[in-house]
Amino acid sequence: MRKLLLPAGVNLLLGVPGVVPVFLVWYVLANGPLATLGWTERDPNENDGMWLWLVIVVPVVGLYGLVWGLVNARLRRRTPVSRTVFWTVCAVASLTPFFAIGLF
Organism's domain of life (predicted)? Predict the structure, then answer.
């Protein structure tokens, strides 16, 4: 488990700016497909349409995903653990700040 401390720490730090893309994805889903299915309610002030949000969301999520993927690919080569354990720990560590902010 000591071998995963560096990747977990780096992903925890990457998760802090990662709050923005995760929130944007949730916002688009909550006001788009999930609201159409009746699982959430649309924001009544959201009247600009979804194309504007997609123009904002796609570059932000794409850039964050690129940085996250490149950093973790480099860390993966240096960490002698199985792939599933490595990527699971990295994903959970990256999402931890979002859920911590959401709970408090």
Answer: Bacteria
pLDDT of 47 higher than 80: no
* Residue 23, Ramachandran bin (φ over 0: left; ψ between -120 and 50: alpha; else beta): alpha
Looking at 1-104, list the stretches that DSSP marks H as alpha helix, in order from N- to C-terminal side.
5-15, 19-31, 33-37, 50-78, 83-103
Residue with tokens 């690919």: 73
* Token pair 């788009």 in the structure block, residue: 32
Coil, helix or strand for 82? coil
Closest C-alpha among 62, 84, 59 to residue 4 = 84
In this prediction the pTM is 0.85
